[in-house]
């Protein structure tokens, strides 16, 4: 009879120990101290106490919690020019900047949306004449730094209270299609009595073109036919605006 040996088997199979969970990298003390000082300066002195790159750093802190964000803030400003243009930059262009991902884009766009809503709240359901400066600030906030043309119509009631602000059309860098019949038709739907037209010039120069003048006259005539008042047409540039009413073009 042949003999054989059985290899002894353990009574219990011991599982391999699970790898220890990796700890998140600790924030270096110099970054932590810098962020603390920056927050204190902002809280004590407000936004005016900080240059653009430091204000941008504050926005980036939440998106990138454990790294020095100053180099990224500088890259963004070098690319887009200033704080406002960085916030309003199109998402595809932001993605082209090294170090910018979804978290950074989200933080930037949340701040931009908050600024738009705050400035809009200061003009909606307000008398336009008594809140004209707030209206101009709102138009600059929402339109001055766009890289394509946008045409908006502000609809007012009989007391010149702003009841609606609507983007009618989006265009290219130097053209936006506008349809006068659609503008006045929407006024009737809203039961509006007056209009203010607003569009931007991405070039930064708000000087009206002949096409701007012709389009304004067409809307003016269409509005008059239906008993609507066209108060003004504002062209928003980078740092100033042009009023057709003030320039004698309306």
Which features would summarize this protein structure in a list?
about 250 residues, alpha+beta, DNA polymerase, domain 1, Cytidine Deaminase, domain 2, 2 domains, 5-stranded mixed beta sheet, 5 strands, about 45% helix, elongated, MPN, metal ion binding, zinc, hydrolase
Report what the structure shows.
The mean pLDDT is 85. Strands 2-1-3-4-5 form a 5-stranded mixed β-sheet, with helices on both faces. The chain folds into 2 domains: 90 residues, Orthogonal Bundle (DNA polymerase, domain 1), CATH 1.10.150.20; 117 residues, Cytidine Deaminase, domain 2 (3-Layer(aba) Sandwich), CATH 3.40.140. With 250 residues, it is an alpha+beta fold. Helices cover 43% and strands 14% of the residues. GO terms for molecular function: metal ion binding; metallopeptidase activity. Belongs to the UPF0758 family. This is DNA repair protein RadC. It holds the Pfam family UPF0758_N.
Protein topology:
Layout: H1 29-45, H2 52-61, H3 70-80, H4 83-88, H5 91-95, H6 102-121, H7 132-143, E1 150-156, E2 162-170, H8 180-189, E3 194-200, H9 210-225, E4 229-236, E5 241-243
Parallel strand pairs: 3-4
Antiparallel strand pairs: 1-2, 1-3, 4-5
Helix pairs in contact: 1-2, 2-3, 6-7, 8-9
């Amino acid at each position: 009879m042949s003999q054989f040996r059985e290899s002894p088997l353990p009574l219990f199979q011991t599982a391999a120990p699970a790898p220890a969970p990796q700890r998140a990298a600790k924030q270096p003390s110099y970054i932590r101290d810098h962020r603390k000082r920056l927050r204190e300066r902002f809280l004590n002195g407000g936004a005016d106490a900080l240059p653009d790159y430091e204000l941008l750093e504050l926005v980036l802190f939440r998106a990138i919690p454990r790294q020095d964000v100053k180099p990224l803030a500088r890259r963004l400003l070098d690319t887009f020019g200033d704080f406002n243009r960085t916030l309003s930059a199109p998402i595809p262009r932001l993605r082209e900047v090294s170090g910018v991902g979804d978290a950074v884009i989200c933080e930037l766009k949340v701040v931009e949306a908050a600024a738009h809503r705050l400035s809009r709240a200061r003009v909606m359901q307000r008398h336009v004449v008594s809140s004209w400066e707030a209206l101009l600030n709102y138009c600059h906030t929402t339109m001055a730094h766009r890289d394509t043309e946008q045409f908006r119509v502000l609809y007012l009631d009989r007391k010149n209270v702003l009841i609606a602000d609507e983007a009618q059309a989006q265009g290219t860098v130097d053209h936006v299609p506008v349809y006068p019949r659609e503008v006045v038709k929407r006024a009737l739907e809203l039961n509006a009595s007056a209009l203010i037209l607003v569009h931007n010039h991405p070039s930064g120069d708000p000087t009206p073109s002949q096409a701007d003048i012709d389009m304004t006259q067409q809307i003016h005539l269409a509005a008059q036919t239906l008993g609507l008042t066209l108060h003004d047409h504002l062209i928003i540039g980078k740092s100033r605006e042009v009023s057709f009413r003030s320039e004698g073009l309306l």
